[in-house]
Each structure stands twice: as structure tokens, then as C-alpha cells.
Amino acid sequence: MADFLNSAMVSEAFTNQKCSQGGKKGSMNSGKLKCNNYGFEINVDVDGAKNIVSRALGKPENSEAFMEPVSC
């Protein structure tokens, strides 16, 4: 039996500007996004990837599935 991988087309627009935990726009500096609500920093590409996954799954971009802070 073959395993199949589902895929979805989603826009990447603005995914690295919004905090993947709170969904609010953060401040970016040197490839890091600082979340003003939660007080952590995350690499903008990691944050954007989390938001893209949320979009692909049809979840809000601040879904609790990605609430684990990442310090980069």
C-alpha cells in the first residue's frame, strides 16, 4: 500500500512579520522577530514557516499547536 503526501498551496505573504504565537505584528531586526506580546525572539524564517503550516492546515496563525517559544 502506498503512502500519499497531501499538499496545499498557500500564500507566504507577510508570514514572517506576524508572531506565530500571538498573531500580532512583531518588530524585526537582523533576521529575528521580537514578539512584543510574549517577549521572545524567533528567527523570521522559522516564524514564517510556522505561520505557513497554520495556513495550510486552515488554522489561525496563532494556533496553540505552535505555542512553544523558540529562542534563536
Could you give the order of strands across the largest sheet?
Answer: 1-2-3
What global shape is seen?
Answer: elongated
Strand content: 5-15%
Number of helices: 1
Beta strand count: 3
Helix content: 10-25%
Molecular structure report:
With 72 residues, the chain is α+β, with helices and mostly antiparallel strands. It has a domain at 27-66. The protein has 1 helix and 3 strands, in the order βββα. The chain has a 3-stranded antiparallel β-sheet. A hairpin with a 2-residue loop joins strand 1 (27-29) and strand 2 (32-34). The longest helix has 13 residues, at 44-56. The protein starts with 26 loop residues before the first strand and ends in a 16-residue tail after the last helix.
Quick structural overview:
The chain is an alpha+beta fold and 72 residues long. The protein is built from 1 helix and 3 strands. It has a domain at 27-66.
Please name the defining characteristics of this protein.
3 strands, 12% strand, disordered C terminus, 18% helix, three-stranded antiparallel beta sheet, alpha+beta, 72 residues
List the helices and strands and how they pair.
Elements: E1 27-29, E2 32-34, E3 41-43, H1 44-56
Domain Cas12f1-like TNB: 9-52
Organism: candidate division MSBL1 archaeon SCGC-AAA382A13
Protein name: Cas12f1-like TNB domain-containing protein
